[in-house]
Amino acid sequence: SQQGEEDPQALSIQEGENATMNCSYKTSINNLQWYRQNSGRGLVHLILIRSNEREKHSGRLRVTLDTSKKSSSLLITASRAADTASYFCAPVSNDYKLSFGAGTTVTVRA
Amino acid sequence: DAGVIQSPRHEVTEMGQEVTLRCKPISGHDYLFWYRQTMMRGLELLIYFNNNVPIDDSGMPEDRFSAKMPNASFSTLKIQPSEPRDSAVYFCASSPTGTDTQYFGPGTRLTVL
């Protein structure tokens, strides 16, 4: 298994702005997943992008994957106060293990 | 579906006591995962099961920790004896396949005094 490393560690933006966070990993993957965790709550799955995909959209979320650079990015457009949370990437190898990094803490200011 | 169910939601116990955390996965999911989250170490995978069989327990910190899955709808994580450093939030997650989306429960916040 391997660990995703998110960057930046923390991000503060104004409501309505876009938020971008990045993830890097080390070895080959089956897919890469992004999760959100609100303070004191469980993780919620946001989006899964497979190794043969380059971009995926879900509502206001856009995820890209560059397997040659072993990196992914998550873009949240038109952010809202409810987007305030920690965001984790989880690269998934064929051993089925998700290894989470420290996450990016996003604060959306009203 | 009710999602992954964990109990108790909060547990406060004294050092040396036995603690049992419970998890009911989503029906039809073949994989079940136990995680631990702390400020210091982040989110760590402890063990996972496939069709009730433990596949990888390399993340279990020590022999004081044990996990079982007696049937497809129930799993336990036991700590005996508990220590203050075991204080953490423990999450259970289930997945229809090993590599797809994992659905997390709300977690059990364990405090060992």
Which helices and strands occur, and which strands form pairs?
The complex is a heterodimer of chains A (110) and B (113).
Chain A: E1 5-7, E2 10-14, E3 19-24, E4 31-37, E5 43-50, E6 55-58, E7 61-66, E8 71-76, E9 85-92, E10 104-109
Chain B: E1 5-7, E2 10-13, E3 19-24, E4 31-38, E5 42-50, E6 53-56, E7 65-71, E8 74-79, E9 88-95, E10 103-104, E11 108-112
Parallel strand pairs in B: 2-11
Antiparallel strand pairs in B: 1-3, 3-8, 4-5, 4-9, 5-6, 7-8, 9-10, 9-11
Q: Could you explain how this protein is built, in words?
A:
Chain A is mainly β and 110 residues long. Chain A has strands spanning 5-7, 10-14, 19-24, 31-37, 43-50, 55-58, 61-66, 71-76, 85-92, 104-109. Chain B has 113 residues and is mainly β. Helix content of chain B is 0%, strand content 55%. Chain B has strands spanning 5-7, 10-13, 19-24, 31-38, 42-50, 53-56, 65-71, 74-79, 88-95, 103-104, 108-112. In chain B, the strands form two sheets. In chain B, strands 2, 4, 5, 6, 9, 10 and 11 form a seven-stranded mixed sheet that branches. The A-B interface holds A 1, 30-31, 33, 35, 41-45, 48, 88, 92, 94-103 and B 31, 33, 42-43, 45, 48, 50, 55-56, 91, 93, 98-107.
Secondary structure: helix percent of chain A: under 10%
The end-to-end span of chain B amounts to 36 Å
Shape of chain B: globular
**How would the global form of chain A be characterised?**
globular
Percentage of β-strand residues of chain A: over 45%
Mean pLDDT across all residues of chain B, rounded?
A: 94
Largest sheet properties of chain B: 7 strands, mixed
The strand order across the widest sheet of chain A is 1-3-8-7-6
The percent of residues in helical segments of chain B reads: under 10%
Helices of chain A, by number, come to 0
Oligomer state equals heterodimer
List keywords for this structure.
heterodimer, A: 110 residues, five-stranded antiparallel sheet, 54% strand, B: 113 residues, mainly beta, seven-stranded mixed sheet, 55% strand
